[in-house]
Inverse folding.
């Protein structure tokens, strides 16, 4: 049990990558706070973990709201009697819209959830981590931090900023035994993407990914748990693509020598 006696706070824990990370951390012995805007989903995940013999409780959080974040971390401390040692910032929204008339309110909202949310949660978590001289933070960024996509004006900008935030925090917290890293998932099969991707979308992505498949949740949790583990103690401020080679690929993607 890699994370026995550790407390973990997972934002976006009610769905997708955050849910998978919460379940995987609990299976490795962590006591998990499943934090999500959607309290019903967070409760469902916490109940599932408890039914498997793990320790979890659900909390409603709006990561873009400082008061909500402070209350959720205070509740977590009250519940477990100690501060958060492991933080996974997975809460995120997409906000797809054409650039020319991209609504500024939507732009600000995507930035508030995807960037300010990680900032606020890391700030809360860091207070306890600094006192104990130990902590691990993993931010779930995206290949969109580096590769532009139509309609992703806010999303791509927010994920690039999240990678920048990761580096900034690693500088200020590294000397205190705290590491801050990011993963950059490529397209991942989740209930959401399964419902929205057409066969053509999947075919287009698959042809661009050297591994010739989309990512699955297990690919993401393996990377997140590694960066949270003791074995990753000397990795700090890093940005790890978990994308089957998508970001590495360039021309001649067909695999043929031409
Ligand atoms: P998802 O929609 O399944 O989960 C996101 C969760 O965040 C939801 O449970 C939602 O309720 C929660 N959330 C949204 N706004 C919130 C807020 N203000 N406060 C607290 N929680 C909030 O999405 P996912 O696919 O699991 O994505 C998780 C992360 O991974 C996101 O940051 C996303 O950008 C990133 N990502 C996903 C993919 C992919 O293909 N699925 C690819 C690259 C990056």
């Amino acid at each position: 049990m890699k994370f026995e006696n550790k407390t973990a706070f997972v934002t976006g824990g009610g769905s997708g990558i955050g849910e998978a990370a919460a379940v995987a951390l609990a299976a490795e012995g962590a006591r998990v706070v499943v934090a999500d805007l959607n309290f019903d989903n967070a409760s469902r995940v916490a109940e599932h973990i408890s039914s498997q013999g793990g320790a979890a409780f659900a909390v409603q959080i709006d990561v873009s709201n400082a008061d909500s974040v402070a209350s959720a971390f205070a509740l977590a401390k009250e519940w477990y009697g100690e501060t958060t040692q492991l933080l996974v910032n997975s809460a995120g929204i997409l906000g797809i819209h054409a650039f020319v008339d991209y609504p500024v309110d939507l732009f600000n909202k995507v930035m508030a959830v995807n960037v300010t949310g990680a900032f606020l949660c890391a700030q809360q978590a860091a207070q306890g981590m600094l006192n104990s001289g130990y902590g691990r933070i993993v931010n779930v960024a995206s290949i969109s931090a580096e590769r532009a996509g139509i309609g992703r004006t806010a999303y791509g900008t927010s994920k690039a900023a999240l990678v920048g935030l990761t580096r900034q925090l690693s500088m200020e917290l590294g000397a205190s035994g705290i590491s801050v890293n990011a993963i950059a998932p490529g397209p991942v099969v989740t209930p959401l993407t399964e419902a929205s991707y057409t066969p053509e979308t999947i075919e287009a992505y698959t042809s661009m990914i050297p591994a010739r498949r989309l990512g699955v949740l297990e690919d993401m949790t393996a990377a997140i748990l590694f960066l949270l583990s003791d074995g990753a103690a000397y990795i700090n401020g890093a940005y790890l693509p978990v994308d089957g080679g998508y970001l590495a690929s360039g021309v001649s993607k067909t695999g043929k020598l031409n």
About this structure: The radius of gyration is 18 Å. The longest strand covers residues 178-185. The chain has a mean pLDDT of 95. The CA atoms of residues 167 and 225 lie 19 Å apart.
